[in-house]
Amino acid sequence: MVLYAAFAMTGFATALLGATLPALAVRWQLTDGRAGFLFLMIFLGSSVGALVSRGRPASSVARGLAITAPACVGLAFAAGWMVFPVAFFYGLGLGIAMTSISLLRSARCTKSRVREMNRLNLIWALGAFACPSLANAALRFRGARTLLTGLGVVFVVFLVWTVLVEVGKMPIIESRGKTLRAGGMRLPVTVALLTLLAIGLESSTGAWIATYAERLRQGFEAPVAAASVFWLGLLAGRALHATKAVTKLHERTLLRADVAIAAAGCCVLALSGGPAMLLVAAGLIGFGVGPVYPLLMAAVLPRIAGNMIFVMAGLGGTVFPLITGAVSARAGSLRVGMLVPTAAGIAMLALVPVVSLQLKRMEGGAG
């Protein structure tokens, strides 16, 4: 249960800076371009963390938490350019912790691994969903310094538990790339592109939707509502895919439906001018894009060699929030910047028929 709570808190921490960006941008004097670079540092750190997670999984969890806790406190007191390197270590610690907890639970639940991974996905999404309302309430009553320092203290508690209880229980397992080298095929280019676009859409929407709602001047609660609805949609999408009825459907069928829903949400986002349309767009994007990456992993990991799917996911999560901020800064309008995730959703819709055919060929080759 403690590891599940820690995993939920990594979801909370991942969503935190995007959900509270309107307030943190003022505190750290961030333009849209600098905010995009902030997200670049976080997701770059997270991607590096995912790739370097190795050795005893419980010890690796402890290393991730030991990096994340001081990084939270560092963000609480950072100012000026120091925010960016601290943000990298914040992402690095989260990347190590999330990956290592997944590997740890996977190693302990060999007979129910798929069910356990679904459970972890839901727990992570639950933490992310809880973040906007809880974090913004803490900002109003205590301020950013107390919020971030308190988060660091929570990670210290999980670190102490991990060191005292979890470390030493499990044998050494290989790094993520080696562990998942199950098949002999290479990752098809189309699947790699869809992975990049899906994580890019998810990360850029999660990073910028609250700030976009605030720029539309829809009221004080609009940023919280938009971020909460996005993460609620993602939670609901993953929860639905964990049900027995949906798991009986083929991955390709689910993939086409999910991408269509996400693309529809992107179109609504591009046309949104009021709070109702914005909330609908956020919910649809979250609901549609949330299950796409888990579906792609389930479809290709038993058949491909190497860890390229994780590399592409990290690249999408790193680049798209940065591009969104850069386009917004260049155009002087976040509405224009939000066309970046919109374009990603439409590109996914165009790409998914080709990916479906490719996955079908891979299944035939495996058989």
TrEMBL record:
GO MF terms, alphabetically ordered: transmembrane transporter activity
Membrane topology: Multi-pass membrane protein
UniProt-annotated location(s): Endomembrane system
Keyword Iron carried by entry: no
GO CC entries: endomembrane system; membrane
Keyword Hydrolase belongs to the record: no
Highest rank taxon of the organism: Bacteria
This protein's UniProt keywords: Membrane, Transmembrane, Transmembrane helix, Transport
Membrane-crossing segments per the record: 35-52, 64-82, 88-107, 119-141, 147-167, 187-210, 222-241, 253-271, 277-296, 308-327, 339-359
Gene3D superfamilies in alphabetical order: MFS general substrate transporter like domains (1.20.1250.20)
Listed InterPro entries: MFS (IPR011701), MFS_trans_sf (IPR036259), MFS_Transporter (IPR051788)
Family indicated by similarity: Belongs to the major facilitator superfamily.
Official protein name in the record: Fucose permease
